[in-house]
Amino acid sequence: MTQRVLLLPGDGIGPEVVAQAERVVLAVAQLFDLPLSLDTANLGGVAIEAEGVAFPQTTREKALAADAILLGAVGGPRWDGLPASERPERGLLAIRSALDLFANLRPAILFPQLASASSLKAELVAGLDILIVRELTGGIYFGEPRGIAVREDGQREGYNTYRYSEGEIMRIARLAFELAGKREGKLTSVDKANVLEVTQLWREVVTGLGADYPEVALDHMYVDNAAMQLVRAPKQFDVLVTGNIFGDILSDTAAMLTGSIGMLPSASLNEQSKGLYEPVHGSAPDIAGQDRANPLATILSVAMMLRYSLNAAAAARAIEEAVATVLDQGLRTADIVDKGQSAVGTVAMGDAVIAALMSQKENS
Ligand code: IPM
Ligand code: MG
User: Which domain-ending residue is among 238, 257, 276?
Assistant: First the structure.
């Protein structure tokens, strides 16, 4: 049966990196005989320009019908003047919510070929392989009431609401325990239970669920300490599970430990394993349209998509191997290039990955 993949190129460098990822999708579809169909829709700033809103109805319908979605990035300075409720980023939040993509998996893996790109000492990060499991459709990002209102004294006041139900905590924690069980069997739950009631409940629920997973070693960490430990001794972690806002912050920190946020893919899944896949990096408007962006995070997101939503693990592995091959060949985009070396562009990196895929197949 044909599986439907929806492409959402978005803004900034999004269209350039998605274009290379699309070539990779087409190549593996052919090499592995996968019946895939591709369609494209607008999300973010590009949707505001073309259709008036960041998450148009047409995009919603295509997204609901798709088996998997590949996103570039959204946002840019052009829309900075808009009120929060109309910005491109709201389109991303809206699609996460519409598809109930509650689980955001953000691996932070150090590619041995790039060890010198990390801002930390090589011995602290060599072999780093962390998975951040971030709750994505709740917490302070979505809690009501929210807004900016004028108080009685005439001052404006902004407010948001940080809330989680037991059910929301349970489903993300369960997934995190299961993923930890398939890895090193270590799960760290991150909260601020010393101050915030909502995360006091989080800690209670996660602890209770731990009884179902005796094979997983669970510990708890306050978020400030977790941020410190991530840059002090990151290899102590295996899987981290946390709420939406802490996960947003800690996943950028973890990404940077690997030297390039331009290398990291992510998956956002619902209970049916339908997913939205996107690079961890943003829209990088400063380099958009210059053939300088690193397409590897988006290409690696295709691998995650094949594995988690499209049941094509062999094709996923082939892509990951092809990426390792091009790194071994010494190809580097500007974000990961060593001083004094020359960088390749976005399209040339895409060409190299496709060539590596083709020669793998020939040699197999
Ligand atoms: C991310 C981004 C988004 C978030 C923004 C663009 C809304 O920072 O995916 O981490 O905060 O979730
Ligand atoms: Mg973020």
Answer: 257
pLDDT at 341 over 90: no
- The domain of 72 spans 1-106+263-364
Q: Which of 4, 79, 75 is nearest to 40 (CA)?
A: 4
pLDDT (tens digit, 9 = 90+) per residue, 61-90?
Answer: 999 999 999 999 999 999 999 998 899 999
pLDDT tens digit string along 197-256? 999 999 999 999 999 999 999 999 999 999 999 999 999 999 999 999 999 999 989 988
Q: Which ligand is nearest to the CA of 74?
A: 1
**Distance in angstroms (rounded) separating the CA atoms of residues 196 and 2:** 47
Ligand 1 pocket, residue 178 CB under 6 Å: no
Residue 119 lies in a domain: no
Q: What is the pLDDT of residue 1?
A: 85
pLDDT-based confidence at 361, cuts 50/70/90?
confident
- Per 3-state DSSP, the chain is made up of helix, strand and coil in percentages (nearest 5) of 50, 20, 35
The answer on 299 and 230 residing in a single domain is: no
Residues 337 and 234 in one domain: no
Contact 251, 280 (CB under 8 A): yes
User: Is residue 253 domain-shared with residue 190, that is, in the same domain?
Assistant: yes
Q: Is 252 in the pocket of ligand 1 (CB under 6 A)?
A: no
Q: What percent of the chain has pLDDT over 90?
A: 89
Do 140 and 253 belong to one domain? yes
Asked whether the predicted pLDDT for residue 190 surpasses 80, the reply is yes
User: Which of 86, 93, 105, 135 to probe ligand 1 with, by most ligand atoms within 8 A of CB?
Assistant: 93
| Domain stops at, among 240, 257, 274 | 257
Q: Which residues pair with 133 in a beta bridge?
A: 105, 241
Q: Are residues 252 and 340 in the same domain?
A: no
Burial degree of 7 (CB within 10 A; 0-12, 13-18, 19+): buried
Is residue 252 annotated as a catalytic residue, yes or no?
Answer: yes
User: Which residues have a beta carbon within 5 Å of ligand 2, which is an ion?
Assistant: 248
> In CATH, what number is assigned to the domain containing residue 25?
3.40.718.10
Domain count, the chain: 2
Mapped to the 3 state alphabet, what secondary structure does 135-150 carry?
ECCCHHHCCCCCEEEE
Residues 230 and 124 sit within 8 Å (Cβ to Cβ): no
